[in-house]
């Protein structure tokens, strides 16, 4: 496969330029990034359009039309980033500094680096005059980090014809896992459902200067938190987990035993497997009195909860009610989004497998269900798209994991070039399907 000799420089420069556009969400300001991408693509003859609920929160959609004889492929990404506290950084967080083989700045890993690589791949194909059997779509959306319906969730509802695609390549995979002499790169084939819930307890309000006359509801949250922390987590069988274990050389292993064994032996592997065992529950928010001198008559605990696609809300509520038996409380779910899954063995997955030897000799792919949420869910839910997370990175995954959403975030320039090569291979391979 031939690519421009300076693709590493081109992608690194585009990433640096995107980093310098502060798209911290809130407030977003993603239109500025979309306009910059559009100008870059226009130089290669690619037309773009902007769509958004408000002018300053626009998403970009660019398209290389196909012949109509094959499936469409979307290269998906988001242009918003989380905020950055400059005092915690060793370089200005929106500098886009190139140093020591890395591009530094907020969003380098999540996920302006992948957006830049996707854009360079599309521009490269356009310069070649390439045309596939199906449309190749670049979609750089707003509002992934907050998810307040300014981005893809809004687009699939209000402009479905612009973003409909048969296959989707997004974030959420490509990390390197080494285990007992074997190397695998993860492919995000799905994500867990966000099923946050709230537990409310009641007492009797009163003046804090005479606490004996009241019944402090906040104190009653103590046993609730303790029991939720200690409760058994509901589990479920997950086909992707068996495939994952086979890829890392642990075919047939007991997943729970593997997690326990690898906490010290291979913490990266343990961290990847554990969320795929079942539900995760974490108390995160408590709400009670709004004034220091008022004893609350009501207290509410909100728990983040992520469940596997095969699991139900009823299972979680039943487990919580069993754990809190004997406590008088009210229960409600406050979130219900995600929990979609794509099969392996598709033409897109096979394209990844074909490219794996170019990432690293002997490397395999390990399908995984991500504990966090991605925009891939909206494409699966709205159109039945086959959507995966994949951007191969040779960068130390322990370092990358620490840097995402943190200070001194940076992307390896070699990985940016690798990503462009991968996306070109995938686009060309899928473009031959008819």
Task: Describe what is shown at a glance.
The protein has 434 residues and is of the alpha+beta class.
Can you give keywords for this protein?
434 residues, Aminopeptidase, six-stranded mixed beta sheet, globular
Model description:
By secondary structure, this protein is of the alpha+beta class. It has 2 domains: 7-172 and 374-431, Aminopeptidase; 193-236 and 278-337, 2-Layer Sandwich (Alpha-Beta Plaits). Helix content is 35%, strand content 22%. It contains 14 helices and 20 strands. It has helices spanning 7-19, 30-42, 108-128, 152-158, 160-163, 221-230, 239-247, 255-265, 267-273, 313-323, 347-359, 376-383, 397-403, 413-431; strands at 48-51, 59-64, 73-78, 98-99, 102-104, 136-141, 167-170, 176-179, 182-191, 193-194, 197-202, 206-207, 280-287, 294-295, 298-307, 330-333, 337-338, 364-370, 386-389, 410-412. A 6-stranded mixed β-sheet has the order 1-2-6-3-7-19, with helices on both faces. A hairpin with a 7-residue loop joins strand 1 and strand 2 (59-64). Helix 1 (7-19) crosses helix 14 (413-431) and helix 8 (255-265) runs antiparallel to helix 9.
Q: What topology emerges from the helices and strands here?
A:
Blueprint: H1 7-19, H2 30-42, E1 48-51, E2 59-64, E3 73-78, E4 98-99, E5 102-104, H3 108-128, E6 136-141, H4 152-158, H5 160-163, E7 167-170, E8 176-179, E9 182-191, E10 193-194, E11 197-202, E12 206-207, H6 221-230, H7 239-247, H8 255-265, H9 267-273, E13 280-287, E14 294-295, E15 298-307, H10 313-323, E16 330-333, E17 337-338, H11 347-359, E18 364-370, H12 376-383, E19 386-389, H13 397-403, E20 410-412, H14 413-431
Parallel strand pairs: 3-6, 3-7, 7-19, 9-18
Antiparallel strand pairs: 1-2, 2-6, 4-5, 5-20, 8-9, 10-15, 10-17, 11-15, 11-16, 12-14, 13-15
Helix pairs in contact: 1-3, 1-14, 3-14, 8-9, 11-14
